[in-house]
Design a protein that fits this description.
heterodimer; A: 109 residues; mainly beta; five-stranded antiparallel beta sheet; globular; B: 114 residues; seven-stranded mixed beta sheet
Chain lengths: 109, 114
Protein backbone atom coordinates (compact mmCIF):
# COMPACT_ATOMS: atom_id res chain seq x y z
CA UNK A 1 0.00 0.00 0.00
CA UNK A 2 1.33 3.43 -0.91
CA UNK A 3 1.96 5.83 1.96
CA UNK A 4 -0.23 8.52 0.44
CA UNK A 5 -2.91 7.69 -2.09
CA UNK A 6 -4.97 9.94 -4.31
CA UNK A 7 -7.36 9.32 -7.17
CA UNK A 8 -5.46 10.72 -10.17
CA UNK A 9 -8.68 11.74 -11.94
CA UNK A 10 -9.08 13.76 -14.06
CA UNK A 11 -12.11 15.35 -12.49
CA UNK A 12 -13.94 17.22 -15.24
CA UNK A 13 -16.39 19.75 -13.83
CA UNK A 14 -18.26 22.79 -15.17
CA UNK A 15 -17.64 26.27 -13.86
CA UNK A 16 -19.55 26.87 -10.65
CA UNK A 17 -19.54 23.25 -9.57
CA UNK A 18 -18.46 21.94 -6.21
CA UNK A 19 -15.81 19.25 -6.28
CA UNK A 20 -14.13 17.25 -3.54
CA UNK A 21 -10.91 15.26 -3.42
CA UNK A 22 -9.83 12.76 -0.83
CA UNK A 23 -6.38 11.56 0.10
CA UNK A 24 -5.62 8.59 2.34
CA UNK A 25 -2.41 8.04 4.28
CA UNK A 26 -1.03 4.90 5.86
CA UNK A 27 1.18 6.18 8.69
CA UNK A 28 -0.95 6.84 11.75
CA UNK A 29 1.96 8.81 13.30
CA UNK A 30 1.75 11.47 10.59
CA UNK A 31 1.72 14.91 12.10
CA UNK A 32 1.05 17.53 9.49
CA UNK A 33 -0.98 17.67 6.34
CA UNK A 34 -1.13 19.96 3.35
CA UNK A 35 -2.64 20.51 -0.04
CA UNK A 36 -0.39 21.83 -2.76
CA UNK A 37 -1.43 23.00 -6.19
CA UNK A 38 0.70 22.34 -9.26
CA UNK A 39 -0.02 23.94 -12.59
CA UNK A 40 1.12 22.19 -15.75
CA UNK A 41 4.93 22.09 -15.97
CA UNK A 42 5.27 24.41 -12.97
CA UNK A 43 6.44 23.92 -9.39
CA UNK A 44 4.05 22.96 -6.59
CA UNK A 45 2.78 25.78 -4.40
CA UNK A 46 1.11 25.55 -1.02
CA UNK A 47 -2.66 25.85 -1.28
CA UNK A 48 -3.44 25.32 2.38
CA UNK A 49 -2.43 23.47 5.49
CA UNK A 50 -4.95 21.06 6.98
CA UNK A 51 -5.76 21.40 10.66
CA UNK A 52 -7.46 18.90 12.92
CA UNK A 53 -10.47 21.16 13.35
CA UNK A 54 -10.79 21.73 9.61
CA UNK A 55 -10.10 25.02 7.95
CA UNK A 56 -11.46 27.20 5.21
CA UNK A 57 -9.87 29.71 2.89
CA UNK A 58 -12.40 31.39 0.65
CA UNK A 59 -13.86 28.76 -1.66
CA UNK A 60 -11.54 26.05 -0.34
CA UNK A 61 -12.21 23.85 2.69
CA UNK A 62 -9.80 21.26 4.02
CA UNK A 63 -10.57 18.59 6.58
CA UNK A 64 -8.63 15.93 8.42
CA UNK A 65 -10.03 12.65 9.67
CA UNK A 66 -7.37 11.01 11.83
CA UNK A 67 -9.50 8.02 12.74
CA UNK A 68 -9.95 7.03 9.10
CA UNK A 69 -6.59 8.49 8.05
CA UNK A 70 -7.68 10.73 5.25
CA UNK A 71 -7.74 14.38 4.37
CA UNK A 72 -10.10 16.10 1.99
CA UNK A 73 -10.25 19.25 -0.10
CA UNK A 74 -13.54 20.82 -1.13
CA UNK A 75 -13.65 23.49 -3.81
CA UNK A 76 -16.86 25.46 -4.15
CA UNK A 77 -17.93 27.58 -7.13
CA UNK A 78 -15.13 26.22 -9.33
CA UNK A 79 -13.36 28.68 -11.61
CA UNK A 80 -11.53 27.97 -14.85
CA UNK A 81 -8.36 29.05 -13.05
CA UNK A 82 -8.77 26.22 -10.54
CA UNK A 83 -7.72 23.76 -13.28
CA UNK A 84 -4.53 22.20 -11.95
CA UNK A 85 -3.18 19.14 -10.18
CA UNK A 86 -3.81 19.03 -6.44
CA UNK A 87 -1.14 17.25 -4.41
CA UNK A 88 -1.76 15.84 -0.98
CA UNK A 89 1.28 16.03 1.32
CA UNK A 90 1.77 14.27 4.65
CA UNK A 91 4.64 14.85 7.06
CA UNK A 92 5.86 12.84 10.04
CA UNK A 93 7.92 13.90 13.01
CA UNK A 94 11.11 14.00 10.95
CA UNK A 95 9.61 16.72 8.71
CA UNK A 96 10.09 14.44 5.69
CA UNK A 97 7.14 15.03 3.37
CA UNK A 98 5.42 12.34 1.37
CA UNK A 99 3.47 13.43 -1.69
CA UNK A 100 0.56 11.73 -3.32
CA UNK A 101 0.60 11.43 -7.09
CA UNK A 102 -1.90 14.26 -7.39
CA UNK A 103 -5.48 14.65 -8.57
CA UNK A 104 -6.05 16.43 -11.84
CA UNK A 105 -8.91 18.93 -11.98
CA UNK A 106 -10.23 20.34 -15.24
CA UNK A 107 -12.85 23.07 -14.98
CA UNK A 108 -14.64 23.74 -18.27
CA UNK A 109 -16.91 26.59 -19.35
CA UNK B 1 8.13 34.94 -6.10
CA UNK B 2 9.38 32.13 -3.88
CA UNK B 3 13.02 33.12 -3.83
CA UNK B 4 14.20 29.57 -4.57
CA UNK B 5 16.22 29.36 -7.74
CA UNK B 6 17.48 26.28 -9.54
CA UNK B 7 19.95 25.76 -12.32
CA UNK B 8 20.12 24.63 -14.99
CA UNK B 9 16.47 24.71 -16.04
CA UNK B 10 16.89 22.09 -18.72
CA UNK B 11 19.66 19.68 -19.58
CA UNK B 12 20.27 16.60 -21.68
CA UNK B 13 22.72 13.89 -20.71
CA UNK B 14 23.54 10.41 -21.91
CA UNK B 15 23.49 7.18 -19.95
CA UNK B 16 26.48 6.76 -17.66
CA UNK B 17 27.21 10.45 -17.36
CA UNK B 18 27.12 12.47 -14.17
CA UNK B 19 25.05 15.58 -13.46
CA UNK B 20 25.08 18.32 -10.82
CA UNK B 21 21.98 20.39 -10.15
CA UNK B 22 22.06 23.53 -8.02
CA UNK B 23 19.60 25.26 -5.75
CA UNK B 24 19.64 28.56 -3.89
CA UNK B 25 17.35 28.56 -0.87
CA UNK B 26 14.95 31.27 0.11
CA UNK B 27 16.54 33.76 2.46
CA UNK B 28 16.29 32.69 6.10
CA UNK B 29 15.50 29.04 5.38
CA UNK B 30 17.77 26.44 6.96
CA UNK B 31 16.43 23.30 5.31
CA UNK B 32 16.56 22.18 1.72
CA UNK B 33 15.02 19.09 0.24
CA UNK B 34 15.20 17.52 -3.21
CA UNK B 35 12.53 15.69 -5.15
CA UNK B 36 12.27 13.71 -8.35
CA UNK B 37 9.03 14.11 -10.26
CA UNK B 38 8.38 11.78 -13.16
CA UNK B 39 5.67 12.63 -15.66
CA UNK B 40 2.21 12.09 -14.20
CA UNK B 41 3.52 11.37 -10.71
CA UNK B 42 3.87 13.34 -7.51
CA UNK B 43 7.27 14.51 -6.32
CA UNK B 44 9.31 11.73 -4.71
CA UNK B 45 11.49 12.73 -1.77
CA UNK B 46 15.20 12.15 -2.43
CA UNK B 47 16.86 13.66 0.64
CA UNK B 48 16.85 16.61 2.96
CA UNK B 49 19.61 18.76 4.44
CA UNK B 50 19.40 20.73 7.64
CA UNK B 51 22.32 22.96 8.58
CA UNK B 52 24.64 21.17 6.13
CA UNK B 53 23.82 17.66 7.40
CA UNK B 54 21.65 15.11 5.64
CA UNK B 55 18.77 14.40 8.01
CA UNK B 56 16.49 12.31 5.90
CA UNK B 57 16.67 10.18 2.79
CA UNK B 58 14.10 8.59 0.56
CA UNK B 59 14.31 5.36 -1.36
CA UNK B 60 17.03 6.40 -3.80
CA UNK B 61 20.35 4.62 -4.48
CA UNK B 62 23.69 6.01 -3.29
CA UNK B 63 24.50 7.38 -6.74
CA UNK B 64 22.15 10.21 -5.73
CA UNK B 65 24.13 12.42 -3.40
CA UNK B 66 23.98 15.97 -2.19
CA UNK B 67 25.52 18.83 -0.31
CA UNK B 68 24.31 21.84 1.56
CA UNK B 69 26.62 24.82 1.93
CA UNK B 70 26.96 27.30 4.81
CA UNK B 71 24.75 29.78 2.95
CA UNK B 72 22.11 26.97 2.79
CA UNK B 73 22.36 26.59 -0.97
CA UNK B 74 22.53 23.01 -2.16
CA UNK B 75 23.61 20.62 -4.87
CA UNK B 76 22.19 17.34 -6.08
CA UNK B 77 24.62 15.01 -7.81
CA UNK B 78 23.60 11.96 -9.78
CA UNK B 79 26.25 9.54 -11.01
CA UNK B 80 26.00 6.83 -13.64
CA UNK B 81 22.83 8.25 -15.13
CA UNK B 82 20.12 5.84 -16.24
CA UNK B 83 17.24 6.41 -18.65
CA UNK B 84 14.78 6.29 -15.73
CA UNK B 85 16.50 9.28 -14.16
CA UNK B 86 14.77 11.46 -16.74
CA UNK B 87 12.48 13.66 -14.68
CA UNK B 88 11.88 17.08 -13.21
CA UNK B 89 14.12 17.64 -10.19
CA UNK B 90 12.66 20.02 -7.66
CA UNK B 91 14.39 21.73 -4.81
CA UNK B 92 12.43 23.15 -1.89
CA UNK B 93 13.51 25.24 1.04
CA UNK B 94 11.80 25.52 4.38
CA UNK B 95 12.25 26.36 8.02
CA UNK B 96 12.56 23.28 10.20
CA UNK B 97 10.41 24.45 13.03
CA UNK B 98 7.96 22.18 14.86
CA UNK B 99 4.56 22.52 13.29
CA UNK B 100 5.92 24.37 10.30
CA UNK B 101 5.44 22.78 6.96
CA UNK B 102 5.44 25.07 4.01
CA UNK B 103 7.84 24.08 1.30
CA UNK B 104 8.91 26.75 -1.15
CA UNK B 105 9.83 25.16 -4.46
CA UNK B 106 12.06 26.29 -7.23
CA UNK B 107 10.90 25.90 -10.82
CA UNK B 108 12.92 22.74 -11.20
CA UNK B 109 15.58 21.31 -13.44
CA UNK B 110 14.26 19.13 -16.23
CA UNK B 111 16.72 16.33 -16.94
CA UNK B 112 16.54 14.16 -20.03
CA UNK B 113 18.78 11.10 -20.18
CA UNK B 114 19.29 9.61 -23.64
Amino acid sequence: RKEVEQDPGPFNVPEGATVAFNCTYSNSASQSFFWYRQDCRKEPKLLMSVYSSGNEDGRFTAQLNRASQYISLLIRDSKLSDSATYLCVVRGGSYIPTFGRGTSLIVHP
Amino acid sequence: ETGVTQSPTHLIKTRGQQVTLRCSSQSGHNTVSWYQQALGQGPQFIFQYYREEENGRGNFPPRFSGLQFPNYSSELNVNALELDDSALYLCASSLQVPGSGELFFGEGSRLTVL
